Amino acid sequence: MTLQRRTVLSALAAAGASAAAPWAQAQATWPDQPLRWVVPYPAGGGTDVLARTVAEAMRQTLGQQIVVDNRPGAATNIGAQLVATAKPDGNTFMSADNAVLAFNEHLFTKLPFNPEKDFTYLGGISRFPLALVVHPSFEAKTLKEFLAYARANPGKLNYASPGNGSPHHLAMEMFKNRTKTFLTHIPYRGAAPALQDVMGGQVPCMFLDLAAGLPVITSGKVRALAIGSAKRVSALPDVPTLAEAGVPNTEVYAFQGILGPAGLPAAITARLNGDLNKALANPAVLKRMSDFGMEPLPGTPEQFRTMARAESKRWGEIIKAAGVKLD
Asked: What are the pLDDT digits (tens) for 189-211?
């Protein structure tokens, strides 16, 4: 090797080391500023409350404030795009649920992000089942009776949902697919007005997530016929699962986890995952989740990625069969 070539290579190596040094130093001192947790839903909803609960527990171990930034809109795509294009420095991450990770790539012809390539998966937070509920005056007292009524009145039985493409809507589409029944969809602008009309008897039924629905079920304002989880939930021990009630292979639940932008350094990914798992073992967090009928979902980033991609495949088949599109 000539002296000139050796000199050029040495200069390039020195420049590379000089450029990498500030980034390596930044990783070593991270977190050195308040962190931003993007929630792609309005303040006050179940996702927002859960994020703030977990963020407070993580603050205690990370030693930095975590600011929740609500960015609702476009079926979560606004918040997801914000995080997908954020600098991968560990200072911005988000709550990601079925919509971001399992639904939207099938509901929209084109997305402003790729759920497989544009994010760093950090870990799961929780999973909470949906329950098939009816107004207390509805004549069906069991799921078997409900199915008999639906089959005897095809297309005449309406169901409510918080909107097209919501977990509640797609849960019913899966239920219809598995049971070969036909119910008419009545979409609302949000879970609250949909539930209000089911409680008022204007619409006879809906799939309802336990995070919002547990109080109205236990108070008798609606009656739960079945739960969409693999096992019964402790808060509703007398309500059978869909499988127990005669509809196998129909688990319907919402799940949430945390994503950062793609390219997040391994050390920061490991730190965020570790502090998230510590938060999910915090008694106060576990109590809050139990109150909402939620199941904690601790684990590694890869376990969360594997689950999310499996959910995307499962729900993609239902969305395609139902012909649901949001654009």
From this structure: 888 899 999 999 999 999 998 87
**Per-residue pLDDT tens digits for 123-175:** 999 998 899 999 999 999 999 999 999 999 988 999 999 889 999 999 999 99
pLDDT bracket for residue 19 (50, 70, 90): very low
DSSP per residue, 215-276: HHHHTTSSEEEEE-SSS--TTSTTSPBTTTTT--S---EEEEEEEEETT--HHHHHHHHHHH
Q: CA angle 300-305-310, nearest 5°?
A: 130
Question: Using CA atoms, how far apart are residues 235 and 142, in angstroms rounded to an integer?
Answer: 19
CA Rg, the chain, in Å? 23
> 129-227: same fold as 32-128+255-322?
yes
Collapse the DSSP code of 189 into the 3-class scheme (helix H, G, I; strand E, B; otherwise coil) and give the result.
coil
**SS3 at position 38:** strand
32-128+255-322: CATH topology: D-Maltodextrin-Binding Protein; domain 2 (3.40.190)
Report the distance separating Cα 137 and Cα 134, nearest Å.
8
* Helices then strands, each counted (H, E), the chain: 12, 10
Provide the CATH number for the domain formed by 129-227 in this structure: 3.40.190.10
pLDDT, residue 291, reads 80
First to last CA, the chain: 60
Q: In this structure, are strands 295-296 and 119-134 parallel, antiparallel, or unpaired?
A: antiparallel
Which tokens go with 114?
A: 């790729």
pTM listed for this prediction: 0.84
Residues with Cβ < 8 Å from 179, sequence gap 6 or more? 147, 150, 247
Residue 133 confidence (pLDDT): 97
User: Which residues in 47-203 belong to E strands, given as ranges?
Assistant: 66-70, 92-97, 119-134, 158-161, 184-187
> In the chain, what are the domain boundaries?
32-128+255-322, 129-227
- Whether residue 294 has pLDDT greater than 80: yes
